[in-house]
Design brief:
The complex is a heterodimer of chains A (about 400) and B (about 150). Chain A is built from 15 helices and 15 strands. By secondary structure, chain A is α/β, with parallel strands linked by helices. In chain A, strand 11 and strand 12 form a beta hairpin. Classes of the chains: A alpha/beta (about 400), B alpha+beta (about 150). The complex binds pyridoxal-5'-phosphate (PLP). Pyridoxal-5'-phosphate (PLP) binds next to helix 6 of chain A.
Chain lengths: ~400, ~150
């Protein structure tokens, strides 16, 4: 593309997805109007929910509401079938193969805690090292701090330390929820392998936006959340190598995860059920199944190209504003843009943008260490998804301009 | 954006751009820090208390317009007040920003912060400086937190 081509007005460019028809699938957008707009740019926090997902959740509650794996009647069997079919579809969405097991969790946070606790208790000893990056979300940092303390292990960060024979696990964020940086996790998993370390990928920000294949990434564990990928809240997944999950003791204990129980001891159910104690979030899991069907139907490659085009346009437009500072400039990046506006604190900015129906995030984005390192206490953050378009970016920059005026 | 003018009054924008008593006192008798863990706002107060009166006060830190203006206005108001008077102002101010009730005039120019009560998430921005002041004066050495 030539220089002038990149400055063409958005109307002259086309987006891979038909945003108008996509938005029609989302009740929250259909319920808005020109007078009462909703420009949702906080997708890194949570995504909106299409009708297809709401319908799947509703069908469970209105047609076959029953507990799974224990009810010997038609509704119970239907619920079990729907729940297990959702597991199957979500698993194949991320390329889980025969050597993988997929465990439903409450989300990324629970999935990481599961590994930090159950894998950590089995494998970490005094002097061992846990390798992370400095840009981890708190949910891939704090669980390891607790585990390290208990085991006498220590935390290392990829910037300062390297892979060594002391490294027992490498747990890294795939796509940064602050800067959009896409880390080369494949390189990290192969380095980890060369020293015999186990790997976990925090894929909370990547599975919703990038075609993901756990087999190709060659990681041992992968964690993500349903609510960031058009699914309901309260459900997510841990995909792990069956061999490792088999060795681990349970994380939570109770019903569902046992095979036999006597007053003194118990034996465990097979993986993945061994890690699903108690009644799971059945409706939510079924909803997540519908979400991956929806995403697969649009195609992850198409979604990625769509977001890349919107993000590129947003970066261009924001860079044109002299008052705006953008944080992060990784060449490989996703649809997340952290920025600040001179003279307008991000909280004030977010409050002012809200007047125009624009939702952005303001704060430290659960990544305080990296913010401290950059010496910023807070930033604004716009993050895009498949229903955003060039007009949303124009509304954002226009509203930033009027916020600047308002505050001066 | 008209209803937002009620929150962001001219006086608040002025204090945000030209904060009063900004900096640190070299010879402080009391000092303390405030921190809002949710949004990362930080604030430091230094005070010179003589007898039972606030003789001088400075604030520094980073935060949104509401927290900065609130701190700035607070410093201008409590200067010269007794410790007991600032405690009663704290209560009146807290009531103002949570209910909009400006009381019987005791609040004076603090009343410009009344608009905050319509924005519950901003209450902690407006009260950070006040919680920090309360901790300072009661000799508590902990970081004041609003959440
Ligand atoms: C990179 C990253 N990891 C983990 C999480 C935690 O996800 P959840 O809150 O759904 O458990 C998030 C969500 O904010 C995230 O962005």
């Amino acid at each position: 593309m030539t220089e002038t081509a990149t400055l063409e007005p958005p109307a002259a460019r086309t987006l891979p997805l038909d945003v108008e028809s996509t938005r029609n699938d989302f009740p929250i957008f259909r319920n808005r109007s020109v007078e009462n707009p909703f420009t949702y740019l906080d997708n890194a926090a949570t995504s909106q929910t299409p009708r297809q997902v709401v319908d799947a959740v509703e069908a469970y509650y209105t047609q076959y509401n029953a507990n799974v794996h224990r009810s010997i009647y038609a509704a119970g069997e239907e619920a079990t079938e729907a729940y297990e079919s959702a597991r199957e579809r979500v698993g194949s969405f991320i390329g889980a193969g025969d050597s993988h097991a997929v465990v439903f969790t409450r989300g990324t946070t629970e999935a990481i805690n599961l590994v930090a606790y159950a894998w950590g208790r089995l494998n970490l000893r005094e002097g061992d090292e846990i390798l992370l990056t400095e840009m981890e979300h708190h949910s891939n940092l704090v669980p390891w701090q607790l585990t390290a303390q208990q085991a006498g292990a220590s935390l290392r960060f990829i910037v300062e330390a390297c892979f060594s024979e002391k490294t027992r696990i490498v747990s890294v964020i795939h796509q940064s929820n602050v800067f959009g940086t896409i880390n080369n996790v494949h390189k990290i998993t192969s380095l980890a392998k060369s020293v015999g370390a186990v790997t976990l990928i925090d894929a909370a920000q990547s599975v919703p936006h990038l075609h993901t294949d756990v087999s190709a990434l060659d990681c041992d564990f992968l964690a993500f959340s349903g609510h960031k990928m058009l699914g309901p809240t309260g459900v997510g997944m841990l995909c792990g190598r069956t061999e490792l999950l088999d060795q681990m003791e349970p994380f939570l204990a109770g019903g569902e995860m046992i095979r036999t129980v006597s007053l003194d001891s118990s034996t465990w159910n097979d993986v993945p059920w061994k890690f699903e104690a108690g009644t799971p979030n059945i409706a939510q899991a079924i909803g997540l199944g519908a979400a991956v069907d929806y995403l697969s139907h649009l195609g992850m490659e198409t979604i990625h190209r769509h977001e890349a085009a919107v993000t590129e346009y947003a970066l261009e437009k924001l860079e044109e504003m002299p008052e705006v500072t953008i944080y992060g400039s990784a060449p490989e990046r996703g649809g997340v843009v952290a920025f600040n506006v001179d003279g307008v604190h991000p909280h004030d900015l977010s409050q002012l943008l809200d007047r125009d129906g624009i939702a952005v995030r303001a704060g430290h984005h659960c990544a305080q260490p990296i913010m401290d390192k950059l010496n910023v206490s807070a930033t604004a953050r716009a993050s895009f998804y498949l229903y955003n378009d060039f007009d949303d970016v124009d509304r954002l920059t226009e509203s930033i301009a009027s916020s600047l005026e308002f505050m001066s | 954006m008209d209803d937002l003018r009620e929150l962001y009054q001219e006086v608040i924008l002025d204090h945000n751009q030209n904060p009063q008593n900004f900096g640190r006192l070299e010879a402080a008798t009391h000092s303390g820090d405030g921190y809002n863990p949710l949004c990362g706002d930080r604030l430091s107060l230094t005070l010179d208390v003589r007898g039972d009166s606030v003789n001088d006060i400075r604030f520094s830190g980073s935060g949104c317009a509401i927290s900065k203006a609130s701190a700035s206005i607070m410093t201008t108001v409590v200067k010269g007040k007794t410790v007991v008077e600032t405690e009663s102002l704290f209560d009146a101010f807290h009531k103002l920003v949570t209910t909009g009730d400006a009381g019987d005039g005791e609040l004076g120019k603090l009343a410009v912060m009344a608009g905050v009560h319509k924005y519950p998430v901003r209450v902690k921005c407006a009260t950070l400086a006040w919680h920090t002041l309360k901790n300072c004066l009661s000799g508590k050495n902990e970081v004041a937190k609003t959440e």
